[in-house]
Amino acid sequence: MEPILAAIQGADLIKVVVWILIAGLIFWLVTWLIDYCAVVEPFNKIAKVVAAIIAVIILINALLVLVGRPFITF
Length: 74
What we know:
This protein is mainly alpha-helical. Helix content is 81%, strand content 0%. It has one domain (7-66).
């Protein structure tokens, strides 16, 4: 357990918090836009599920940055 805790630094933690806030804001805007545009019912749910999956992948990647092993590098 100590190697994981040793890898977490303050700058990385701030970077992850910023990524989580940005991903949350983008996810909220996408779901709001889907509701605002009044997309028909089957496509509405599909678009929200796709947006949620993308948001979860970004969240998992942001958390993996803390341990030094992100699976998506930007």
